[in-house]
Amino acid sequence: MADPVLSVTNLTIRERNGHILVRDVTLAVPRGGVLTLIGETGSGKSLIAQAVFGLLPPGLEASGQIMLAGRPPIAAGDSRALSGLWREQIMLIPQEPSLALDPTMKIRRQMALAGLDDEAVDPALAAFDLPVHSVDLYPFALSGGMAQRVLVASALGVGAPIIVADEPTKGLDAERVTQAIATLRQLAAAGRSLLVITHDRHMAEALPGTLAIIREGVIVERGDSARVLAAPESDYGRTWLEADPRHWSRSARCCDMSDLALSAHGLAFGWPGAPLLFKGLDLHLPRRSILAISGASGGGKSTLADILLGLRRPLAGSVEWAGADIVADPSAIRRFRQRYQKLHQDPIQSFVPHLSLARQFTALESVKTGLSVARALPPLLERLKVKPDLMDRLPREISGGEAQRLALARILLLDPTVIIADEPTSRLDPVVQRETMALLRQLVDDAGLGLVLISHDRALLRSVADDEIQLDAFKT
Amino acid sequence: MNRVVKRMRQFPKSIWALAALAGIAVLGPVLAPLDPTAQDLLRVMEAPSSQNWLGTDHVGRDILSRVLSGAPHSLGLAVLCVALASGTGLALGLAASNSGAFLRAVIMRSADLMLAFPGLLLALLLAGFLGGGIWPLLIGLNLALWPQYARMTEAVATGVLRQGHVEAARLAGFPERVILLRHVLPPVLRAILPLATLGVGQAIMSISALGFLGLGLKPPTPEWGAMINELLPFLSEGLIQMAAPCLMIFACVLSLTLAGRALAARMEAGSDG
Amino acid sequence: MSVAKATNTMLRVILLRVGQALATAALLASLCFAFVHMLPGDLALRVAAARVGDERVTPETADRIRREEGLDRPLIVQYGQWMKSLARGDLGRSLLSGKPVVQELAYHGAFTLQLGLIGWLLSYLIALPLGVFAGFRPGGIVDRATDVLAVTLASLPTFLVGIGLVTLFALTLRWLPPAGFRTSAHMVLPAVTLALSLVAFSIPIIRNAVLEVRAAFFMTYARVKGLSPPAAFRHHGIRNAAIPVVTFAALQFAFVIDGFVVIETLFNYPGLGELLVKALIARDVPVIMGAGLVIGFSFAIVSLTADLLRLWLDPRALEAVRV
User: Fold this and answer.
1) What is the reported pTM?
2) Looking at chain B, which residue has its C-alpha nearest residue A363?
3) Which CATH number is correct for B67-272, 3.40.50.300, 1.10.3720.10, 3.90.1640.30, 3.40.630.10?
4) How far apart are CA B238 and CA B232, in angstroms?
């Protein structure tokens, strides 16, 4: 790293009250190379990007130095001096591309204001796989991925040798992630130096150069990207790597088909005026097994969950709960209601925001005869490794992982036969995700539950499920 | 005890002004030193004196007594109006968010249609046709005001009903009644409270405007707007007499506005986490 | 979205909103009809009393009027007649003056339009600079001062603002006439009163619009892309900040109604509001209905204009419209 084009030295970011968010970070982006900074939500990685641009949110202070090749160093807190580097020296590809575009102005004019003249626009679009007519659209008509490519195309149009991409894959689905990676590689190929900030391991793997892992504001490991990913030296790096679903050991298959907790035959559903989301769908869920349902977003995964839970009627087909068809006989829903439960995607939102958790748990006694929360809950919490003193808090005062465990505890108090989990870990960090999945597997085996696991992450599904249904195969 | 004091400190200061005004509204007629309708044609438009602290009006009635006894008419009626309108809006909004597409469309489109009417015009027309008094005021203002509460209720309730905790409660077997009371009503009420506080202020202004136009409560009822209407021809000789009801209206509306703003700011801060 | 589709959507929005305005007018007309016929007592007697005076009404006059005005026919027929003549633009004659209602409305409406326009323009002359300045320096002295001003004015009923101005400028300083309509000096106090009551609500709207746009990420990003702060505001700020402001300003022109009825009465200004109030006190039913209809219908037209302006300024609105 003889010739860094951008170096950040001893960067520390703290709140006004002195709480430190980023501690003593030193980074260097090699000329014409890529530095990838990877970390979980809340690790402080995006703050570093903001600090480089002098765009930290109000209330945060930065110290340390930022230096560009051949220029005197700039104090990290000096936003005015840093803003002098914009466009000429450094360019940002921001986290939420759609927020970076003026909603009332067509793309062509915005690209023109960024310095791309008319002749330059069309090649720039073509280079990034954007349809020619997209310049005559307003930003709201672009998808997140398209908006991002527009920004990348504009960034190429300005001369800045250094480009910082902040979470370029946030909110994109798997296919788009591949595209975003290709876009960034294109930037690198065009000779720009890149600082890429991400939480996405796939992105880190696909980009050459240096990789730095950040945790709680501290760089825990850095080195050649391929080396770090193959053999991490730090404990955290190892935990992180093992948390990748592709590295989990596969579960043993089970499946006693004679003991079905849930089954469905010939299901079809579609919204009025639209093609059917699926039809002719059969599924069987034996006790002590996990059935995975995968499919593209918007493909009807959550709707299928609603149908299986008796919350929505299918257009055709049957759903059997313990042998009773709830489509033909809706009264069966009431009889078995508490046996069929759902684990929500957003665990915090699955609790009433204005009531303490303890009150929400004791309320269950009014709907479940013979339940004593005071007796049944403590052993359950111990098993789920939740601290009992969390119960006095409000839902927003606990973490996502804790909330998901408590949501699970609440379901288990109802003594369910089937749990349908809709993307239960998509909002959790990888390490927590892995723990939660292990817990679910264990519960399924111990309590004889059937679990339907819905996710778009097929690697995750394959690693834990006994059987998988791809919803896209039932499209019409 | 300490906790009570602590909680009371958390209230916006304007709440205390409101409490004082509410006290006047309840006790006003009792506090009035003289009969607010007793005329004395020998002592008209007199300056403040030890007998009439705020002077007398054009037919010799005691201004202080009239302002104090007017409080239940102006303030009380406004509270009643808003209570009715917010109650109607709350009920219809909850009904809309809990029912099928058809009923929802009927309720929300009627709200849109009512909002397309200038509020005062309705009350004016009703007052004109029905000949003044309390009923046209109540009906007219209720018609004009309920849609905003219905819209707010519908928006908040629909949002809450989509959240995971409602579905979790349904799956756990809680009856709809419990879901409405425990999950939906608290956030709806918190959203409506600032609106209703501001609404009382607006209702006071509308009621007094109608009184001022001679189309509200009828003389000799000491309603503040009607008092201003009666005193207007004597403005140049009776500034203090005129100032009394004016200041009462201003004080009421101002404290309600400030309290409403403080409540709204608190709700916003609360929802952020 | 293609241009053709956008035009198409625009057209549908216009048709929808014109339909809504007509529905509002029809509803208002029906309500007026219902009110009149709901009133206790004999309508013919009341009409007679208004025409010839209370003392001279005889049962014969009432009967004659009943026949002449068709009041003895079934309600549904009368309702049909009433809607039909409305559609022809015939609103009948004033019971008080005997002149056609349309003529009265045109005469008084011109005064109201004049007052409304001047007051409304004046209010934005005051509110725009103050609101924009406050939005650029939130928490600064101008921001705090305009906040106090706005809250104070919002807590004052229009007639109190008017009475205050009259007391100060007409009675104490004697700079301006307190009431009337003959010279342009007569215009000042009513217009300022109206403007002040509008300013109370437009200043915070303008301030927040400016503040919000300035904080938007696309403004920061425009500067990262190399625009200077003034250029960024010129290219990206003004139009975005204008969306809420223009919509509100157009709507506020409709809300002038709550103000002008009171203001015209206070200043003895011969506009629609004053006409309406006098008609209400005298129970001049045709004029009441006519004025109510005109006010309601103008309200609908103004909110239609506000909608169209928003559609024109904000491309997202066009997308959000589902007709």
Assistant:
1) 0.80
2) B174
3) 1.10.3720.10
4) 9
